[in-house]
Write a structure and sequence with these properties.
Chain lengths: 336, 395
C-alpha cells in the first residue's frame, strides 16, 4: 500500500509538470490552431534564465525567499519576452499561409533554440574566430580584441549540463507510514491547479478571454468587430510561455540538471498530454498531464521500467482511437 | 483529426531528427590552433573526446592527461628528434560525432595514432574507422569487451590500456559481498548504454555466484530527469545496496532522488562515476557510496605521486582516473613509437601489441592477445565531497 501511495505521489508530481507545459500548448492551439513545437524549448530557456538569475544572485550560497521570487520573475519575464518574439518574428508573418507552413516554422524555431544554446559561448567563439584570422595573417585591431573579451563567456551555455541551485529550500515530509512528499511536489501541484483555475477564469470571465474565444472562433470577423487580433494572439503566446517558464523552474529546482535539449521529451509528452485531454481545453490539459504522469509511473513501477514510455503511450493511442477528440475535447465538424 | 495525426507523424520525425541531426562541426578551443607544419617532421596524435556534453569532464580530463604526456616527451626532445602535436576533436558525447571526428583525424589530419574515446559506445563507433584506415587506436578507458574484440575476432588496430567490464563487474560484486557483506542488491542500469548493460550483467553473474541475491533489475535512459518510479519499486524490495553502473550526471540525480524517498542504502558503481560533477550535483546524497576505478590519487607510490604533482602544476586540481588513463594511453603510444621502425601504421601497431610490463600510473601495463591490459582495480568511497581509497582488488 505504501508503495502504491508513493507511486501515486511520484506520478502526480511528474504529471503536474506535464500539465503545466500542456496548458501552454493548449492555449496557443485553442486560439491559433497552431501546434507550437518550440514550446518545449521555451521551457528550456526558462530553466536557463532562472539559472543565470540565480547564479548572479548567488542563490547557491544562501537561498532566500526574496531571491526565489526574483528567480521566478526573471524566468517568467525571459520566457514571456521569448514567446512574444517568436510569435512576432516567426509566426505572424506566416499567419495567412497554410497551417503546415507555420507548423514547419515551429519546428525550425525549436531547432534554432536547441542547437543555438549548444554553441560555445560568444567569448569562446570570438576567440576562435580571432585565432583563425591570425592564422590567415589578418591583423585584428587591439580595441576590437579588447571589446571581444567583454562578450559573455557563459552564454550560449553549450551542451554541457549545468547544476541548477535550489530556488527555495527543500523540505521532505514522511506521511502515512513511509510515503515521502516534498514541498516541491506540493508547490508544483498548487501552482498548476492555481494556473488552471486562473486560466479558466481568464478565458471565460474576462474581456481578454472573450476576445480570445472570438479570435479562436473566427479571427477575421473578430477583427471586423474591433477586436485587436494581433494583440490578443501576442498575449496568448506570452501567457503560455510564462507558464512554461514556471514549469521549468519547478522541475529544475527538484531535478537540478539542465541542458539545452531538456525541453525535447517533456515538450513532446506535454503535447501528447494536451491531445489526450482534448487539445484546446484547459481542464483537459491538466487531466491529460496527470493521466500521462501517473500512467508512466505505474508502468515503470509495476511492470518493466524499459517499457515506461512504450506502454504509457500505447494507452494513449487506445484512448484516442475510442475518443479521437480527447477526454474533454469538443467534437468539431470539419468543413470541406 | 487528420491534422492531429499528421502532427503526430511530424512529432515522431522531429524526435528522430533531433537525435540524429548534428550541428555544424564546432571545433573545440584546442582545435583552433594554427595547423602544424609539414607532417613529416612532427608526430601528430589525434584525440577524440567528449569535450562538451553530459560527460564533458571525461573528455577534458583525458585530454589534459594526453597533453601532459606529450609535453613531457617534448621536453625530453620528442621521439627520435620529432616533436609531438596533439589534435583534439569534440565528440559532444555522441557516437556518430565520434565516428566523424575519427574519420577527420585519420583522413584530413593524417595522425600517427588515434586516442579515445572514454565511453565504450563511442569507441565502438570509432574502432571500425581505425581498422579500415590501418591507423592504431588506443582507447584510454573504454571497458566494454566488444571495443577490441568483435564477434570473437580481435580488431587488428584497436587497443586499450584499461581493464574490461567482466573484471570491473566482478570487482564490485566481490567488494559488495566480501567487504560490505551485503546479500541483497538491486540493479539500476542505463539500457541504452553498452557500458552500463555489460557491467550490470557481469556484476549480476558474479554476485549470484558468490551467494548473493539480485532482488530487482530496473532500467533507465541516460538523460531522464525522473527516477522515482524505479527507485520506489527498488525500495519496496529492501535491498542492502544498489548497483548503478551509469555515468555521473544520471547517477547524481539518482542518488538525490533515492535519498528524497528516504532510502539510505549505499550506491555502488563503476568508473563512469569518476568526475567532480558527481559530488557537485549529488552533494550529500552521494556520500558513503562506492565505485570501482582505475587508480587512486591517494596511492603513495612515487610513480603516481610524480604524476599527480605534475598534473596539479600544469592544470590545477587532482587528476581523476580518466586523466590518468589518458596519460597512460599516450605514454604507451609514445613508448611504442620509440621502439617501432616507423612511428605509424602496421609497424606502430606491432610495437603497441608488444608492450610488456610498461610502468603506467594506473598499474603495470601488458597488452594481452585480446589487445586488453591486465591491471588491478581500486575501489573508492565518496567521502567529504571527494573520493577516497577503500581497497585494491587484483584480477
Amino acid at each position: 500500500m505504501t508503495e502504491f501511495l508513493q507511486h501515486l505521489v511520484n506520478g502526480i508530481s511528474l504529471g503536474t509538470i506535464y500539465a503545466l507545459i500542456a496548458l501552454g500548448y493548449t492555449m496557443v492551439y485553442g486560439v491559433l490552431k497552431l501546434i507550437n513545437f518550440a514550446h518545449g524549448d521555451v521551457y528550456m530557456v526558462g530553466a536557463f534564465a532562472g539559472y543565470y538569475v540565480a547564479t548572479a544572485l548567488g542563490v547557491q550560497r544562501e537561498p532566500t525567499l526574496g531571491k526565489a521570487v526574483l528567480v521566478f520573475l526573471g524566468a517568467m519575464v525571459a520566457t514571456g519576452l521569448l514567446g512574444f518574439l517568436i510569435e512576432r518574428l516567426a509566426y505572424r508573418p506566416l499567419r495567412a499561409r497554410p497551417r503546415l507552413t507555420a507548423l514547419i516554422t515551429a519546428i525550425g524555431v525549436s531547432f534554432l533554440l536547441e542547437y543555438g544554446f549548444q554553441l560555445p559561448s560568444f567569448r569562446a567563439q570570438a576567440a576562435n574566430l580571432e585565432a583563425a584570422l591570425r592564422g590567415w595573417g589578418v591583423v585584428v585591431p587591439a580595441w576590437l580584441s579588447a571589446a571581444l573579451a567583454h562578450l559573455p563567456d557563459t552564454f550560449p551555455p553549450g551542451p554541457t549540463p549545468r547544476f541548477f541551485p535550489e530556488p527555495f529550500e527543500r523540505v521532505d515530509w514522511t506521511v502515512l507510514g513511509g510515503v515521502h512528499v516534498s514541498n516541491y511536489d506540493v508547490v508544483s501541484l498548487l501552482v498548476a491547479v492555481a494556473f488552471m483555475v486562473g486560466l479558466q477564469l481568464v478565458v471565460y470571465r474576462t474581456r481578454f478571454g472573450t476576445a480570445m474565444r472570438a479570435v479562436s472562433f473566427d479571427a477575421r470577423t473578430a477583427g471586423l468587430m474591433g477586436i485587436p487580433v494581433n494583440r490578443i494572439i501576442s498575449g496568448t503566446f506570452v501567457l503560455g510561455s510564462v507558464l512554461a517558464g514556471v514549469a521549468a523552474l519547478l522541475v529544475a529546482g527538484s531535478r537540478p540538471r539542465i541542458d539545452p535539449i531538456m525541453g525535447l521529451m517533456p515538450g513532446l509528452k506535454a503535447f501528447v498530454a494536451a491531445v489526450f485531454g482534448g487539445i484546446g481545453s484547459v481542464p483537459g490539459a491538466m487531466l491529460g498531464g496527470l493521466a500521462l504522469g501517473l500512467g508512466e509511473e505505474m508502468v515503470a513501477g509495476y511492470t518493466s521500467s524499459s517499457f515506461r514510455d512504450g506502454i504509457a503511450f500505447a494507452m494513449l493511442v487506445v484512448v484516442l482511437l475510442v475518443r479521437p477528440e480527447g477526454l474533454l475535447g469538443r467534437v468539431t465538424v470539419e468543413k470541406v | 483529426m487528420r491534422f492531429v495525426r499528421a502532427v503526430a507523424v511530424v512529432a515522431a520525425a522531429l524526435a528522430v531528427a533531433a537525435c540524429q541531426s548534428k550541428p555544424p562541426e564546432a571545433p573545440g578551443p584546442a582545435a583552433a590552433k594554427p595547423a602544424s607544419p609539414a607532417a613529416g617532421d612532427r608526430i601528430l596524435v589525434g584525440h577524440v573526446g567528449s569535450m562538451t556534453g553530459s560527460e564533458a569532464t571525461f573528455g577534458q580530463s583525458t585530454d589534459n592527461g594526453i597533453r601532459l604526456a606529450a609535453d613531457q616527451w617534448n621536453a625530453k626532445g620528442g621521439i627520435a628528434g620529432k616533436q609531438i602535436d596533439v589534435k583534439t576533436y569534440d565528440s559532444q558525447g555522441k557516437p556518430e560525432e565520434a565516428a566523424v571526428a575519427a574519420t577527420r583525424l585519420l583522413v584530413n589530419d593524417k595522425v600517427n595514432v588515434l586516442l579515445g574515446e572514454v565511453a565504450s559506445s563511442r569507441s565502438l563507433a570509432m574502432a571500425p574507422v581505425a581498422d579500415e584506415r590501418q591507423v592504431p587506436m588506443i582507447t584510454p578507458s573504454s571497458t566494454n569487451p566488444r571495443v577490441t574484440k568483435e564477434g570473437g575476432k580481435v580488431r587488428p588496430f584497436v587497443f586499450r590500456v584499461c581493464f574490461i567490464d567482466p573484471f570491473q563487474g566482478t570487482v564490485m560484486a566481490k567488494f559488495a559481498r566480501e567487504r560490505l557483506k551485503v546479500a541483497k542488491v538491486a540493479i539500476l542500469r542505463d539500457v541504452g548504454n553498452d557500458y552500463s548493460v555489460g557491467l550490470a550483467d557481469f556484476f549480476q553473474d558474479k554476485f549470484r555466484q558468490l551467494g548473493g541475491e539480485i532482488v530487482t533489475d530496473q532500467s533507465y535512459k541516460a538523460g531522464d530527469q525522473d527516477f522515482k518510479a524505479q527507485l520506489t519499486a527498488i525500495k519496496n524490495r529492501n535491498p542492502e545496496a544498489i548497483y548503478v553502473p551509469g555515468y555521473y550526471t544520471d547517477v547524481a540525480l539518482i542518488a538525490r532522488q533515492s535519498r528524497e524517498l528516504g532510502m539510505k542504502q549505499p550506491l555502488l558503481g563503476g568508473d563512469g562515476w569518476d568526475s567532480v560533477k558527481l559530488y557537485e550535483i549529488g552533494g550529500k546524497a552521494i556520500e558513503g557510496s562506492y565505485f570501482s576505478n582505475h587508480y587512486s590519487p591517494d596511492d603513495p607510490s612515487p610513480r603516481i605521486q610524480e604524476f599527480v604533482q605534475a598534473y596539479q602544476k600544469r592544470f590545477g586540481g587532482v587528476p581523476d582516473g580518466l586523466a590518468a588513463q589518458g596519460y597512460d594511453a599516450a605514454m604507451v603510444a609514445f613508448d611504442a613509437m620509440k621502439r617501432a621502425s616507423v612511428p605509424s601504421g602496421v609497424a606502430l601497431r606491432d610495437a603497441i601489441a608488444a608492450t610488456k610490463d610498461y610502468p603506467g600510473v594506473t598499474g603495470i601495463i601488458t597488452i594481452d592477445e585480446n589487445h586488453d591490459a591486465l591491471k588491478p582495480a581500486v575501489v573508492l568511497e565518496v567521502k567529504g565531497g571527494k573520493s577516497v581509497y577503500a581497497t585494491t582488488i587484483a584480477p
